Amino acid sequence: MPTLLSLPDDISIESALGESVLEAARRADVPIACACGGKAKCSTCRIWILDGADGCPERTALERTLVERLGLGNNVRLACQLRPASDITFRRLVLDETDLRMTSQLLPHRSTSAGELKSVVIFFSDVAGFTHFSETLTPYDVMYLLNRYFTQVAEVIELNDGYIDKFVGDGLMAIFGVNGQDDAPVRAVNAALQTLATVDRLKPFFASMYGIDFDIRVGLHLGEAVIGSVGSPGNERLTAIGDAVNVASRVEAANKEAGTRLLITETLYEQVKNEVEVSDFIRVRLRGTSDRISLYEIKKLKVEAERRLNEKGARETMQLGGKTWHRAVATSELKDGDHKVIEFQALYAVILRRGGRVYAFNNACPHLKLPFFETASRANGHAGRASTFGEDGTLVCRWHHSGFDLDTGEIVRWCEALNEDGTSAGMEMLGDISKNRAPLRLIPCREEDGYIWVGLD
């Protein structure tokens, strides 16, 4: 019979063959949480296998489904599904009611990661001389300056598959490799170099506006960190916890004494050394450590690496501003006054160019969810009436002549073609169909790299 040692309870349990850890724990009065009743519908019964993981059976199909959705680590198992055939030592990961509220995936609208040890690149940046700026400029100007800088840098990081962890004062922390991307190390370096280039383009503007010499310092480190969701239920945010975060922060700070702008640790350098050019390297003792380590000042990417990473138009999607942007249509294919209906997984989108601007909206009227325009595949044989665009910047629905403001989505006119009692001519048996007042669903769009992109959540 397998022996199960539960921590932090320090209780040893004799388990019968074929018995789940949850069943054995309950029999021994070990308080393992289980919000779903042992059906693998939540992860509140999860345990960390400290010893004996190699002898544990493979995950069940139910456990695999939940593990893949939540990103649980290899040594984290569901007590309701694990039926040990040999001795194990485990730690309960949900200890009390607070933990239960934090981890129950039975609650609505939850999207959390329980925490997994991963090899990631941590990116830290800081504004040089920020204390002086904050003391000499008005708070409004400081906020404007930082927001202009952060907005452009955030785009650079997300376009390189990085995840913005947090903004703290004038500091920024980002994570590369959250989803296990093989090229995360070189993409992190690419993002750092592009960030510095972005700052160089901002310098003349800030100099003319405020008379300041704006610059930043960046530190990168490749190491292991626990990646998971932190925050109160409903307000979680993905973050990294571990010594790798502290090291990256200290590497960024080392730039000040070294007189450099971008330093990376030796562990990261070993992964990218064939794809970068180095200006110099230094031996330093980072704050709070006793050993000296080597830090490398990166000058630029080698030509082939830069071409591969920054090739324009190669992607169908990109992450930016918390949205997934989908490449919709080439800019050259949409002349002024033209529109196209593009199919995406979640909806059909209408892309319109009008008066030099580009608009995008859901191809479904808010009234009866009927299409404003037919798709190309259905256009033949459906060439009857079509929705139109008014001179006042409105979209006029072809079905009941509702009008919507293309800038705001607001209702300008509502169901003008219905009868006074709200019925539709010839379809009176449907009754009053005028009640469903809803605005037009606008979709964010942008032009970049010769294409029009639409942003979907």
TrEMBL record:
It is found in: Cell membrane. Residues 1-96 form the 2Fe-2S ferredoxin-type domain. It is a multi-pass membrane protein. It holds the Pfam family Fer2. GO terms for cellular component: plasma membrane. Residues 121-252 form the Guanylate cyclase domain. SMART domains: CYCc (SM00044). Keywords: 2Fe-2S, Cell membrane, Iron, Iron-sulfur, Membrane, Metal-binding. GO terms for molecular function: 2 iron, 2 sulfur cluster binding; adenylate cyclase activity; metal ion binding. Its main location: membrane. InterPro entries: 2Fe-2S_ferredoxin-like_sf, 2Fe-2S_ferredoxin-type, A/G_cyclase, Adenylyl/Guanylyl_Cyclase_3/4, Beta-grasp_dom_sf, Nucleotide_cyclase, Rieske_2Fe-2S, Rieske_2Fe-2S_sf. One of its GO terms (biological process) is intracellular signal transduction. The keyword Endoplasmic reticulum does not apply. Residues 326-454 form the Rieske domain. The keyword Nucleotide-binding does not apply. This is 2Fe-2S iron-sulfur cluster binding domain-containing protein. It comes from Mesorhizobium hawassense.
